[in-house]
Amino acid sequence: MSVKKRAILISLLVSVLLMLAKFAAYFITGSNAILTDAAESIVNVIAGSFAFYSIYLSTQPRDENHPYGHGKVEFFSAFVEGILILIAGVVIIFKSSYNLIYPHALGQLLQGTVIIGVTGIVNMIVGLYLIKVGNDEHSITLKADGRHLLTDTYTSIAIVVGLVLIQLTNIIWLDSLLSILVGFYIVYSGYKLTRGSVGGLMDESDFTLVEEVVEVLQKNRHRPWIDVHNLRTQQYGPEFHIDCHVTLPYYFDLNKVHKEISQIDELINKSGVRKAELFIHADPCLPACCHYCHMSDCPVRSEPFKAEIVWTPEIVIKNKKHFENELL
């Protein structure tokens, strides 16, 4: 079993156990705040089940119908999880608002507080584990599930504090008020998760990856690499794709062009940057490129060299060659 599958399976099993524990705490206390936490655990279980399937699907090899692999299903999984969190938060707010107006008695709060506290600690441990594995494996599903569990941890902490206050003050309506506040936090967390997944589904560029690639190219640039532009990134689950245009001397033959492009591909994939599939388009140089071209032995130079244009993310993502005004 792969590392990703093992991690999400652990998360799913733990979520089922914690959900049962939280509902047990609710039945012995009648606390709306605890019910809030228990309801979110149902979302954890449903989302974990879908996440397990999405990770299974994302690890399948490419086929004729999916030439880029199946990795994008992870963004869809994160989107579904975010929507479920949003729905849970809205339901919690409405129910707690009703109970704020019509409060009911609570019981055995000490036992319920202990159970919620323990489940919060377990969620924190599993959440941090999922985020670590997600970062190592570049899995948005694991990172989303991990952040969701950390959200659950924060709500558990808030609920424990609130239950302690209720026991100290005997103010019953604090239970529903706390549940409403936690509900709004859950809605916000669901929104952030949904927003991130939509960005992935819409092929939103990973600017961190762009920065990493540009830094490697700038530090190791070769003289024939006159400029790099129109650089774009896409993520398909654990797989990354990078498109860019590279300006080379126009008099290079096809073998020489292929050699330079292959060196760029090798440099990116052996430099510590995340493994990626590169699609590089070679552009011929123009006379306007002479001002920043390092080819001192160029047989066709028409203008003297002035200064190097330092490659930055802001420059290389533009869909145009560099020109003299970028030296300013």
CATH architecture of the largest domain: Up-down Bundle
Quantity of strands, as a count: 3
Q: What is the CATH topology assignment of the largest domain?
A: Alpha-lytic protease prodomain-like
CATH class of the largest domain: Mainly Alpha
Count of helices? Answer: 9
Describe this protein's structure.
- This protein has two domains: 3-201, Cation efflux protein transmembrane domain (Alpha-lytic protease prodomain-like), CATH 1.20.1510.10; 207-327, 2-Layer Sandwich (Alpha-Beta Plaits), CATH 3.30.70.
- The protein has nine helices and three strands, in the order H-H-H-H-H-H-H-E-E-H-E-H.
- Helices cover 62% and strands 9% of the residues.
- It has a three-stranded mixed beta sheet, with helices on one face.
- The N and C termini lie far apart (55 Å).
- Helix 4 packs antiparallel against helix 5 and helix 5 (140-169) packs antiparallel against helix 6.
- The protein is mostly helical and 328 residues long.
- The protein has helices at 3-29, 32-58, 73-101, 109-137, 140-169, 173-201, 207-219, 254-269, 313-316, and strands at 227-236, 239-248, 276-284.
